[in-house]
Design a protein that fits this description.
Blueprint lengths: L5 E6 L5 H13 L3 E6 L9 H8 L4 E2 L12 H8 L2 E7 L1 H9 L5 H8 L3 E6 L3 H5 L1 H12 L3 E2 L3 E4 L5 E5 L3 H20 L6
Parallel strand pairs: 1-2, 1-4, 2-3, 4-5, 5-6
Antiparallel strand pairs: 7-8
Length: 194
Amino acid sequence: MADRPVVLLGVTGGIAAYKAAELLRGLQKAGMGVRVIMTRAATNFVGPMTFEALSGAPVRLDEVSELRADSRITHVEDAQDADILVVAPATANTLAKMANGIADNLLTSMILAFGKTVVIAPAMNTNMWDHPATQHNVALLRDRGVFVVEPGAGELACGDYGSGRMAEPDSIVAEAKLRLQVQRKRDLRGLRVL
């Protein structure tokens, strides 16, 4: 299907990384192709083979050279080929890097190279989520046009109760679909069709 949108799915190192596999499946069921980028920390929670088996595509990892055999640069090429970038879970560390333009791994480099719609689904401990630094970073990202799927409240992996749970995969898929529809309508603005 040539018109199938491509999603870059960034998976960062938090316990909610296991939900990213369900998110990947939901994106596929919604008619999207998915390419996964994992941080080194994410591989401590879910193995890359899980995402490769589900997506049918190689997973991009920090350990792999950014220069491909055909001399193209991975983070630039993937950023150009994709329609939307979704980071789920988005840890406090990754949010801080995004807000401050730090590109010290493949995912954060790709985020800076990506000129289209970005959706994030934060996931962390309640105290980390509520911390003024995290809230400032999220507000800054929103001001720059990043769409945030708010974390839910409930029991967290650490045993605490409060906000910080990654949003349910269905909610993230719905946000990605909405943003792609808006993006496509904007792409058609000003065109006359006979």
